[in-house]
Design brief:
Blueprint lengths: L8 E5 L3 H11 L4 E5 L2 H8 L7 E4 L8 H10 L8 E4 L7 H6 L4 E3 L5 H51 L6 H14 L4 H10 L12 H4 L7 H7 L2 H9 L5 H12 L20 H16 L10 H10 L7 H9 L1 H9 L5
Parallel strand pairs: 1-2, 1-3, 3-4, 4-5
Helix pairs in contact: 1-5, 2-3, 6-7, 6-12, 7-11, 10-11, 11-12, 12-13, 13-14
GO biological process, one term: phosphorelay signal transduction system
GO molecular function: phosphoric diester hydrolase activity
Protein name: Two-component system response regulator
Amino acid sequence: MPAESPKAILLLAQHDASRMDALRTALQDHYTLLFAATGEMALAFAHDDLAPALILLPAALPDMAGTEACRRLKADSRTRDIPVVFVAAGEEIDDEGCLAAGAADCLPGPLRPALLRVRVAAQLALADQEHHMAELVRKRTQDLEESRLQLMRRLGRAAEWHANPEGDTADHAGALTLLLARAAGLDEDAAQNLSLAALLRDVGKIGVPDSILYKTEALTLDDWELMRCHPLIGAQIIGRHPHPLMTTARLVALTHHEHWDGLGYPQGLAGEAIPLEGRIVAIADTFCAIISPRSYRAARSPAQAVALIQERAGSYYDPDLTRHLTALLPEIEALLARPAAP
């Protein structure tokens, strides 16, 4: 025989003993009841681990008006979703005032037990439905977020593969960016955003001729003119969008080839005029390029990559960030030893 579902918990706030007894008699066979004789006691119960599913309030309690208790419940993120029903036993209730304070329902006197039970059950069912809908929205939002992240990863891999079919470092660039961003003091949301934005850093290489991307000999001056256009092309592809991730992705695509000494491209920014996001991804991008095989050389080790980047600290790269990179080498080596994400 299946176990019975636990009874919903109701909190009855009432200082008058006879009215409390009337409420108890009407509801005790259907719900688990908690009792509070004052407003402060009711608020304390509402914050308890066994929070009530619904609260019944009178017009007035010894220490505060019922509407004041209701307003405080609705102002608190921990209790704002608990439905509140005002119940009149003998006193007058200001329906408009109660509803304005956030009440879900108001029952005028005299107390009618059957009607009370129906109205309570209706509010509990409505609260369950709202909770269910909120959960569906949360799950759908989570699914959309995951789809968006997967799309970003795959676009990043496509751009990476187009630029360098011999090595797929898109995921490594994102993971290294995350480590550097945390070390540089970015908050977790900003660090996660930047790690994803880094995946699209070279999307602009789609606009660079293959004859230049795959060239095995040194690039000519004309070749470099075209190659140096890819940050601008990437920024145009990503476009302008108010979402923080897309804003960061555009910023990264545009600035990750700027150099600390001002001799980078496309804008010739120098020092801290280069956005921190661009400075971080510049190091992650170079690191991944060094450890990736090329048609003209073999892949190098993480330690060699760090050493080469350190040699250019203060010219190409932010000196503080290169120090963070050196300190992170053991974590980076462990990261690279893990299987790539699917």
